[in-house]
Amino acid sequence: MRAQFVLSEIGVGLRRNLTMTFAVIVSVALSLALFGGSLLMSDQVNTMKGYWYDKVNVSVFLCNKSDAESDPNCAKGAVTEDQKKEIQTDLKKMAVVDTVTYESQDEAYKHYKQQFGDSPLASSLTPDQMQESYRIKLKDPEKYQVIATAFDGRDGVQSVQDQKGILDNLFGLLNGMNWAARMVMALMLVVALMLIVNTVRVSAFSRRRETGIMRLVGASGFYIQAPFIAEAAVAGLIGGGVACGFLVVARYFIIDHGLALSQKLNLINFIGWDAVLTKLPLILATSLLMPALAAFFALRKYLKV
């Protein structure tokens, strides 16, 4: 009987404050969709880091004849055969190095033509203007500085470059976007909590006569508060369900179909459905507990029961 009464009061409260209930649902849905999106964005960045950092190389570029005339690092002339052998031997001895691959001037010229063949500069370049280099794959991409310290400024070495630096800029941008989404999510969450508290107070005020009678007949504080807390929880849970729907639809249309980024951007390793599905229970639990707790603390002060 008591459960039936609580359920009937929930229905009455939701219908009586339909506009505010709708506002709570929308704000909770948007805030939790942003929350889930920020979690998925973090997973995507971590997935891309694991994928690309495993493929980045450190390049040790060697001096050629052109560099000897224009680059201070190559003031002692083009790299000699003995210097190349010594550099390669020292690289292979280093504990942080996984593999070492030599790229000749002809190979560098061929790769340049493949990547930048349409560039006006490509027609004026010759193989002897390209740089020989050693491409080093590290066991730990974070250990780039070890290679730079050992070979930067060495005779025959023009420069040491790390592809990880380029990726760090990209990941920095993605992380910045992720934090911006989290700030918007936090703002929406505050708005949702304010709406929940206000909705609960309006609902309690409109039923103050009933709650007064219940206090007089000895009803417990929890029994009086239960319908109001449940109303907030139900509205929040509906919003959480909508947020989960947003995430599933976004993953389906943006990555798999519609925009189909997984087919158009083959170089990006996108997160799978498992990452999305593992976030849904967290979103639903948050959508249920957050409004319920907000309503509970609001009622403790407002109803004074």
Automatic annotation (TrEMBL):
GO terms for cellular component: plasma membrane. Pfam families: FtsX (PF02687), FtsX_ECD (PF18075). Residues 56-160 form the FtsX extracellular domain. Coiled coil: none annotated. It is a multi-pass membrane protein. One of its GO terms (biological process) is cell division. Keywords: Cell cycle, Cell division, Cell membrane, Membrane, Transmembrane, Transmembrane helix. The chain crosses the membrane at residues 21-41, 179-200, 236-255, 276-299. It comes from the Bacteria. Residues 183-301 form the ABC3 transporter permease C-terminal domain. It is found in: Cell membrane. Belongs to the ABC-4 integral membrane protein family. FtsX subfamily. Part of the ABC transporter FtsEX involved in cellular division. NCBIfam families: FtsX_actino (NF038346). Forms a membrane-associated complex with FtsE. This is Cell division protein FtsX. It comes from Streptomyces longwoodensis.
